[in-house]
Amino acid sequence: MILNLLNLLIGFSLMLISLALLLNYFRLNKINFYFFLLIFIAGITRFQFGLVSFGFISESKPLVFRVFIFLFIFPPIYYLCLKSFISQKSSWKSILLHFSFFLLIISVRLYFGELGLKLIGVLFLTYSVFYYYLLTKISLYYLRQHQSIYTKQQLFKVKQLIVWIFALSINNFIFSTYFIFFSDSNKHDAIQGMFHSTIIVWILFVTYLFFNPSILFNEVFKKKDPKRDFLKEFSIWNSKPLQKLDTRDVAIELIIRKNVEKLIEDLRNLKPELIIQSNSTNLIHEMALHLNHPKSHLKFAMKYHSRFSQSDYLNLMRVIYALTLLNNGYLENYTIETLGEKCHFNSRTSFYRHFKKHMGVSPAKYKTLIE
User: Fold this and answer.
1) Distance in angstroms (rounded) separating the CA atoms of residues 15 and 29
2) In terms of CB atoms within 10 Å, which end of the chain has fewer, N or C?
């Protein structure tokens, strides 16, 4: 009784969420179609099951009870939903290809009549394993190649969504179990067990959406963020020494010990554009011109509190400045070569090498990712 009530409530909640997505589309002309389709179909099937369980409608009316093979639509929807969330467009040819097996199953059912649950189970399990492989492949590829366009908070949300899509797709394997181990004569038991065993995942997912409403409207996946603080993201400076102190540096350490927090904070806030025109030889001198700290203190901080050498730090600051310009639309009026020159890289090759070293992608690739 309690599980039936939960299915009814979750089904109703999912239908309300799908309505909110639809209203947002009419208001802003923006919607993740596959996410809407996933939420709507899952909501209406669970709501129908709840109504049947409490006797509000007869068992023969709901579509999910009469045409079980409609569940074959879920595996490609999970995949296309995640793919559209992480901004990978699919062509119409690709979309039709993903739903071709579902359409084939529908055609077979119309021609040969009702299919046995065990046969449906085996087909559905094979189908689900294939799409679970595609989900894994696209997730690993995306996190490896595209994470540089997100802030840490955004990346955390992306990883959360990937986990949830995987969790929901596991329902496919649960469905398969009931198809395979329940005969046609126990169809009602198979349906009931299937809905009851997967309700917990949907309860947790609806709760997650309640506390993270930005995901519903795709807002967390806006990658182009002009106010993004790259200096903090790279965590260049550490308040505590990163290596053992040399004997010759003990004296200077005693002098700056009380002010080391202020020194590190000032270094963290140093704007890249103020020092990128310098070179590794006079970098400390340039930093001292813009910070109210002696050169000896800055040299000590660079040696013991920085995760980068002077040369690497300078090139990273140039990359950070390039990222700031990119996120503010610099390439709308200028070329990538001009960007490299503005950031004081000696050559296009040097710019590309250092940019890819820190971001994992080339400047040209990054440009396409934030558009």
Assistant:
1) 20
2) N
The closest alpha carbon to 39, from 22, 62, 56, 26, belongs to: 22
Q: How far apart are CA 176 and CA 127, in angstroms?
A: 10
Q: Alpha-carbon distance 176 to 205, whole Å?
A: 21
Q: Which of 18, 167, 182 is nearest to 82 (CA)?
A: 167
**Orientation of helix 33-53 relative to helix 187-211, angle to 10°:** 130
Residue found by looking up tokens 């899509």 in the block: 165
| CATH 3.90.1150.10 holds for 230-370 | no
How high is the pLDDT of residue 154? 65
E strand or H helix at 132: helix 117-146
Question: How many helices, marked H, and strands, marked E, lie in the chain?
Answer: 19, 0
For residues 338 and 344, what is the distance between their CA atoms, to the nearest angstrom?
A: 10
Query: What is the residue-wise DSSP string for 319-358?
Result: HHHHHHHHHTTGGGTS-HHHHHHHTT-SSHHHHHHHHHHH
Are 82 and 161 a contacting pair, CB within 8 Å?
yes
Question: Rounded to whole angstroms, how far apart are CA atoms 195 and 46?
Answer: 7
Over the stretch 101-132, which tens digit does the pLDDT of each residue have? Answer: 888 888 887 787 777 778 888 888 898 999 99
Per-residue pLDDT, 27: 74
